[in-house]
Write a structure and sequence with these properties.
Blueprint: H1 3-12, E1 17-22, H2 26-35, E2 41-47, H3 51-60, H4 73-79, E3 83-85, H5 88-93, E4 99-102, H6 107-119, E5 123-126, H7 129-146, E6 150-152, H8 157-170, E7 174-182, H9 196-200, H10 214-221, H11 224-237, H12 256-259, E8 274-279, E9 296-301, H13 305-313, E10 324-329, H14 339-348, E11 360-366, E12 375-377, E13 384-390, H15 391-396, E14 406-410, E15 425-426, H16 432-443
C-alpha cells in the first residue's frame, strides 16, 4: 500500500483531497475522528439535515470549533476549514470537491445523492449499502460512463470481504465461500424495535435506550443487514447467493473451513462459490467459543496436492480433509477505516469493492401476519425483514425490494413468513428510486 505516501505528497503540494461527508451519524462520526488527523485530507463540508447533530459530531470527535466555523463552502475551501450545512445538493455541486461520502443509510436519499455526485463529476463512496443493494449495479454503470469512481466503503464488512475474495483470486485460489459473523437465532427474524432491547443487553453494554436508534440496531439482529451486506458482496464479486438465502450456521473462527464448504463435502453450503454468515450462537442459544461475530472471512480450496500440503504446513486453518482452508479478519472498524476508500478513489481511481453484476437481491419478508391497509416501515421495523435471494428468483416472483418497503401501504394480506410482492403494495411509479430500480431490473435482466 502506498496511499499514505500519496496523501502526504498531496499535503506537501497543498492540494489535499477534498471531501463532502453526507450523514453525521455513527459511521460519519467515526470517519471524522480520523479524517482530522489524516495528512492530505480536507473535509470541506459535513452535511446533515440536523445541523446541530453534525456540529455535535465534530465536537465529540475532537474538532476545534474554529475549524468548522466556515460561513460558506467557498470560505471552507479557501481557508482549509469545514462548512456545516443541511444542503447536500449545494455541497455536492461545489467545484473543488473530489469525493462525496454518502452515509445517510436511507436508500432513496442515497440514490438521489449518488446521482447528483455522478452528475457533478465527483467520486462517490457509498457507505449506504442499502442504496447499493437496491440499485448499485446501475449506479456503478452510470458512474463508469461519467468517468467517476463508485465504491463500497472500506471498514464496513462488504468491502473487507471483497478484499478477501480479491486476495484469494489474485493468488490463484478458488473461492468456496466468503462472508462474516453475526449474532443469530431463527426467532430473531421476528424481532422489532420494541423487543430488540432485551436481546441487545445480552451482549452490548448500553445502560439505557435514550439516543439509540433501536430500529437500526434491530436490522442487524433480525437478519436484514446480513442479507443486505452479503448481497452487496455477491454483486461486487460474482459469488452466487444460495437458493434459500443465508442459513446462519453456528461456527467458530477455527471451524470456518469445515462449516463453510459444500454439503457434499460435509459442510453447510448448497454449493461452492457463495456467501454465508456464521452465527456466534448455537441453535440452543449458547455462545460459540472463539466466534467471529464482528469479523469477516474467506474459505478457499486447495486444488493441488502441493497446495493442500502447504495449508497444513503453514497452519491455514484447514478442514479435516485438508482440501479447504480459511483466512479471517477478527474485527472491523467501520468509519475509522473509511479513509482507505477515500484515498483509493481519489488517488488511484480504484474502488474498494463495487457492484459489477445483479446476481443477488434482498426482498421484504413478513415478520407476522400483515393486513391490507397497513403501512410497511422498512428495514429493522415491525413489519418485514430482508431476506437474501438470487436476483433471478426475486425478479421471477416480482418480489418487493427491501429498500422500497418503507412508507408503502399494503393492498392485500400477507402471511407471516411470506415474501411481499410489488402487487401487494401501493407504490408511486414516478418515485425516483422506484424508477431507477425498475430501470436496473430491465437493464441487467438476461
Amino acid at each position: 500500500m502506498n496511499l499514505s505516501s500519496m496523501l502526504s505528497a498531496r499535503a506537501e503540494a497543498d492540494k489535499p483531497v477534498r471531501v463532502v461527508l453526507i450523514g453525521a451519524g455513527k459511521f460519519g462520526s467515526m470517519y471524522l475522528a480520523q479524517a482530522r488527523l489524516t495528512k492530505g485530507i480536507h473535509v470541506a463540508a459535513v452535511v446533515d439535515l440536523d445541523v446541530s447533530r453534525a456540529r455535535a459530531s465534530l465536537e465529540t470527535t475532537g474538532w476545534p470549533a474554529e475549524q468548522y466555523g466556515a460561513a460558506s463552502l467557498a470560505e471552507a475551501v479557501k481557508n482549509g476549514m469545514t462548512f456545516v450545512t443541511d444542503d447536500a445538493q449545494a455541497a455536492i455541486s461545489a467545484g473543488p470537491v473530489d469525493v462525496v461520502i454518502e452515509a445517510t443509510g436511507h436508500p432513496s436519499v442515497g440514490i438521489r445523492h449518488c446521482l447528483a455526485a455522478i452528475g457533478a463529476g465527483k467520486h462517490i463512496v457509498m457507505v449506504n449499502v442499502e442504496a447499493d443493494v437496491l440499485a448499485g449495479p446501475l449506479l456503478k454503470r452510470r458512474a463508469d460512463r461519467a468517468g467517476v469512481v463508485y465504491s463500497l466503503a472500506w471498514g464496513d464488512q462488504p468491502a473487507l470481504i471483497c478484499e478477501h475474495v480479491d486476495w484469494a483470486r489474485a493468488c490463484g485460489f478458488k473461492v468456496v465461500c466468503a462472508g462474516k459473523g453475526t449474532r443469530y437465532l431463527p426467532q430473531f427474524h421476528g424481532l422489532t424495535p420494541e423487543t430488540v432491547w432485551d436481546e441487545l443487553c445480552k451482549y452490548l453494554t448500553f445502560k439505557d435506550k435514550s439516543g439509540l436508534n433501536l430500529q437500526m440496531f434491530n436490522s442487524f439482529l433480525d437478519g436484514t443487514k446480513s442479507g443486505i451486506e452479503m448481497s452487496a458482496v455477491c454483486n461486487a464479486t460474482g459469488l452466487a447467493p444460495q437458493p434459500g438465502g443465508l442459513s446462519f450456521p453456528p461456527a467458530s473462527r477455527f471451524e470456518l473451513s469445515s462449516v463453510c464448504r459444500p454439503k457434499e463435502d460435509g459442510g453447510a453450503l448448497a454449493f461452492s462459490g457463495t456467501t454465508e454468515v456464521v452465527s456466534s450462537l448455537t441453535r440452543d442459544g449458547e455462545d460459540v467459543a472463539h466466534h467471529l461475530a464482528m469479523g469477516t472471512y474467506v474459505v478457499i480450496e486447495g486444488e493441488t496436492e502441493y497446495a493442500r500440503r502447504c495449508f497444513s504446513e503453514y497452519h491455514m486453518l484447514e478442514d479435516d480433509s485438508g482440501c479447504f482452508a480459511s483466512l479471517y479478519r477478527p474485527t472491523h472498524m467501520i468509519g475509522l477505516e473509511l479513509g482507505i476508500s477515500v484515498a483509493s478513489v481519489a488517488l488511484r481511481g480504484e474502488p474498494t469493492g463495487a457492484p459489477k453484476e445483479f446476481v443477488a437481491d434482498v426482498v421484504a419478508t413478513a415478520k407476522r401476519d400483515l393486513k391490507a391497509g397497513e403501512t410497511l416501515d422498512g428495514e429493522g421495523g415491525f413489519c418485514v425483514w430482508g431476506k437474501q435471494q438470487p436476483a433471478k428468483a426475486s425478479l421471477a416472483m416480482q418480489a418487493l425490494p427491501l429498500g422500497l418497503a418503507s412508507g408503502v401501504r399494503l393492498k392485500t394480506d400477507v402471511a407471516d413468513g411470506a415474501i411481499v410482492k410489488w402487487s401487494d403494495v401501493e407504490f408511486d411509479g414516478d418515485d425516483h428510486a422506484v424508477k431507477l430500480r425498475r430501470e436496473m431490473e430491465t437493464e441487467f435482466s438476461d
